[in-house]
Design brief:
Blueprint (H helix, E strand, L loop, with lengths): L6 H19 L6 H4 L5 H13 L2 H13 L4 E3 H26 L8 H10 L2 H22 L2 H21 L12 H17 L7 H18 L11 H16 L6 H7 L2 H9 L3 H9 L11 H36 L4 E3 L1
Antiparallel strand pairs: 1-2
Helix pairs in contact: 1-3, 1-4, 1-11, 1-12, 1-13, 1-15, 3-10, 4-9, 4-11, 5-6, 5-7, 5-13, 5-15, 7-9, 8-9, 10-11, 13-15
């Protein structure tokens, strides 16, 4: 059996590092974009790096479509596993942070906040909905011809990306955080996998990605919607970056593949609203570098450090509770078929 190359697994690792970068600049997490002085060099650098990384989530969903479009059924157990990991980290990290690491910030409303943090991670919820729809999407993909597929993508491109980018948000008002964007990205990934043969075009899509980053940066200085996931240049940039890594020849690498399996958990740990402020502001002191010449150095140290911390935590979860999770999930045999 031919072993799958590790280029897309390497892309997953790059994307989660981008997500951590986005959280570094998030006003409610690392805080960079909320507190950097407008017009300063750090201000423009923050906008550039935010625009450079904003395609991460979109690209993750494209990867799902690329690898999943041939499936005719999905296991409910996989969805439950994602939800279980979300609840585990949400509950554990919130309690530890609220009552051990930062007890002085604990309020009488902390119980409600912990519950929301534990069960309301937007990406997990929307991704699980997408996953449940996979058999039905794949049924459609298998039955339409390439020309019809192009028309479908073209209609979606105009109404859900071009229109809300430059006119009004009447066609999609969730900034691309909802199921419409996820379904469309899935269809894009599936189309690439089904109709585009692998090639060695690396430079051209990389240039497209960089140009999209530059355009988004310029727009971000004027309009807030430039960082919407459905902003058209973020869509184009995510496809371009995916094509770059799709064309890179990275032979099967066990270490890369193993490291990539931590991606989802790294996201869940890093996004926890109780824990991430401790990580960014207390542990790595991001608040001291918002307007410092060393901001970029602090960013690099923070991103790498947080990535390593999250991997260690998830490794411990697997070591201690891995068999329990696997046993519980194995009891669920239900599948969805279209």
């Amino acid at each position: 059996m031919k072993k799958r190359k590790s280029n897309i697994e390497l892309l997953r690792i790059v994307l989660i590092l981008m997500v951590i970068t986005l959280h570094y600049f998030n006003g409610n997490m690392g805080g960079g974009l909320k507190h950097v002085i407008s017009g300063s060099s750090n201000y423009y650098l923050a906008h550039l790096l935010e625009s450079f990384s904003i395609i991460a989530v979109n690209t993750f969903v494209i990867i799902t479509g690329y690898f999943s479009y041939k499936k005719n059924n999905i296991r409910i157990a996989k969805v439950l596993n994602l939800v279980a990991i979300m609840i585990f980290w949400g509950l554990l990290l919130s309690l530890i942070t609220a009552f051990v690491l930062r007890p002085q910030n604990t309020t009488i409303f902390v119980g409600k906040d912990i519950l929301e943090t534990t069960t309301n991670q937007w990406f997990v919820i929307i991704y699980c909905i997408l996953y449940l729809l996979i058999p039905y999407l794949n049924k459609m993909i298998s039955e339409i011809n390439q020309n019809s597929y192009k028309w479908l993508l073209g209609i979606g491109l105009f109404f859900f990306y071009f229109w809300p980018s430059f006119y009004t948000r009447v066609t999609v008002n969730d900034g691309g955080y909802g199921i419409i964007n996820f379904v469309y990205l899935y269809l894009v990934g599936a189309y690439i996998s089904k109709y585009h043969k692998e090639d060695k075009q690396i430079v051209k899509p990389f240039i497209v990605y960089l140009l999209c980053t530059l355009v988004v940066t310029i727009f971000s200085l004027k309009i807030g919607r430039a960082w919407d996931y459905c902003f058209i240049f973020n869509l184009i940039g995510s496809v371009a970056l995916f094509q770059v890594f799709r064309s890179i020849n990275v032979k099967h690498n066990k270490f890369i593949n193993y490291l990539a399996t931590y991606t989802f958990a790294v996201y869940l740990i890093d996004v926890n609203e109780f824990f991430n402020k401790f990580l960014y502001r207390t542990l790595f002191h991001s608040n001291e570098y918002w307007n410092s010449n060393a901001m970029i150095l602090n960013l690099i140290i923070s991103v790498i450090g947080i990535y390593i911390i999250c991997i260690i935590l998830e490794f411990l979860r697997r070591l201690i509770f891995g068999r329990l999770f696997a046993w519980l999930i194995s009891k669920v045999k239900l599948k969805i078929e279209a």
